[in-house]
Amino acid sequence: MDSDEYWDNLESRNGDGNGDGVEVDTPDDKAVLSSVHTRSAHNLSASVLRKKSDPMLVPAVGRFRAMRSMLVNMQEVILGTKLAVLFPAIPLAIAADFYKFGRPWIFALSLLGLTPLAERVSFLTEQIAYFTGPTVGGLLNATCGNATELIIAMFALRQNKIHVVKYSLLGSVLSNLLLVLGSSLLLGGIANLNKEQRYDRKQADVNSQLLLLGLLCHMLPLMFKYASAATATTITGKEAASAAATMDLYKLQLSRACSIFMLIAYVAYIFFQLKTHRQIFEAQEEDEGEGEEEEAVIGFWSAFSWLVGMTLVIAVLSEYVVGTIEAASSSWGISVSFISVILLPIVGNAAEHAGSIIFALKNKLDISLGVALGSATQISMFVVPLCVIVSWAMGNLMDLDFSLIETGSLAFTVLITTFTLQDGTSHYLKGMILFLCYIVIAACFFVQKTPPPSDAFVEALGFVPSSGGSPAA
């Protein structure tokens, strides 16, 4: 087949909608595209918001191959999602920052721009997985599944806004276990009142155990702090400040040790998921009876290039979000804790959350549970300890002590979710209880203000407290 015939076939496939703009980078790619690809629950959840892109742009450029390839890719990546209407928020956020508009506007536009980007990153990692195989694809999903939260956390760490890191990561876990899972079970139960909703308990048990391990690692530094405070009640004056700083240092060291073991557990979980017990985590296909095989719609290098570009855009918007969150909090009269715990996770993962609910409505709870529990496990056992280790390398003071209210909320969330998923069946009342728990916790953070840092601990390690309340080197 010569070049003209190749592009004619591509155009015809775009015209009738069967090929979806497939770009084949090498002759061997056809063999790869024909192989069966196992999609994770995370991929299936995000895919429900995708749509067929308009093929009319491709024939308009004649026979310029490079231009056709670029337009085909642009159609699939930019226009291939129902969230494409939010893409204009990205240049608007950049323009708002360039022209020094109000910082709350920059925050709001950046938050909206992150919503389609998070869904597109999931789409692009899935496209790359078609060419790399299920193992590498699974590793990509394991690392890029919560790329938005991870990038925001890295920029917050760079600006030493440790409270924003802790709040946003805690909010991601709470929203996945209570809001996403709760609304999925609630709406799925209402939509399937006359059907018995069942799911595979094996996957839920594995994720629940990991979440309980993560909870233990969060509770140990907190319990150590209160136990140390109880033994130091008889000390006064400078000795008390010195003892408190020493105990905070021990708490920090304990947190770093726990983080290392959490990362080891997560690596074991990935090996368990991708190698030894892979069948437990294989999501059921949306249309099992049709026997249709999924194919890549863009080539490997195109997907990789788009993934790098969108990651850079996410980094820019994340920096805007972190830099303007206090201004938005002050302007809107909403606490930083509420914005970080509630708003950031909801907007950042809106596409994934919507997909989980849609699959629950179709009585496919295994996929919904895979999305909610898998994402919560990844945040708790990978992103949080990774942030502690990165903070250690940066010389910052992040630990696993998320304070009493935050750790208590996490503990009750993990426990009530574990009890809810014990019997392998579901109904709308279970979802309603989880959803109401989320509303109550959200109300708590709505009235909570960010606590000041411990100046004695900061000064003991050679840091100077900044005027804004956060320690600065």
Automatic annotation (TrEMBL):
**Residue ranges of every copy of the Sodium/calcium exchanger membrane region domain listed in the record:** 105-274, 304-446
Does the UniProt entry include the keyword Transmembrane? yes
GO terms for MF: calcium:proton antiporter activity
Coiled-coil regions listed: none
Q: Name one GO biological process term.
A: intracellular calcium ion homeostasis
Keywords of this entry: Antiport, Calcium, Calcium transport, Ion transport, Membrane, Transmembrane, Transmembrane helix, Transport, Vacuole
The subcellular localization recorded is:
Vacuole membrane
> How does the protein's chain sit in the membrane according to the entry?
Multi-pass membrane protein
**Cellular-component GO terms for this entry:** calcium:proton antiporter complex; plant-type vacuole membrane
Which domain of life does this protein belong to? Eukaryota
User: Which residues lie within the region annotated Disordered?
Assistant: 1-26
Q: Which Gene3D superfamilies match?
A: NCX, central ion-binding region
Record-annotated membrane-spanning stretches:
77-99, 105-124, 136-157, 169-194, 206-224, 254-274, 295-317, 329-348, 369-394, 400-421, 428-448
Main site of residence? membrane
What family does the database annotate? Belongs to the Ca(2+):cation antiporter (CaCA) (TC 2.A.19) family. Cation/proton exchanger (CAX) subfamily.
| Task of the protein | Vacuolar cation/proton exchanger (CAX). Translocates Ca(2+) and other metal ions into vacuoles using the proton gradient formed by H(+)-ATPase and H(+)-pyrophosphatase.
Name the chain's protein.
Answer: Vacuolar cation/proton exchanger
Say which species the protein is native to.
Trapa natans (Water chestnut)
